[in-house]
Description:
This protein is mainly α. It has 4 helices and 2 strands. β1 and β2 form a beta hairpin. It is elongated. The chain starts with 6 loop residues before the first helix and ends in a 26-residue tail after the last helix.
Amino acid sequence: CGPRGDPARRSAGRPGIPGVAVQSLRSGCGAASNAGAPLPAASTQKAAVLVDAVRRGRAARRGPVLDRMIIDSADVAANSVLADLGGGSADAGAGTHNQRPPALEPPTTH
């Protein structure tokens, strides 16, 4: 296992301070460059919450809340859906998701 290309080299020349972390969902292998950098997610995580609600078949009954979450970018609605999916609480929301990503261990070689 190992990355395809160097994450630091892939982000070189781009504006800002890049932080790249990738991890295979199958093997767990990963690579990171400046993974401790703050990475504000803003409302981008709402897209993942929407996809998960659809994937789990809960979009129909949560339709109006999903509309508020996406169309109005309503954090309260996103917190409610996230809690329904088992990933947080409607009050606390996804506060821990807006922190620094966890450090990935370097791939081991055998």
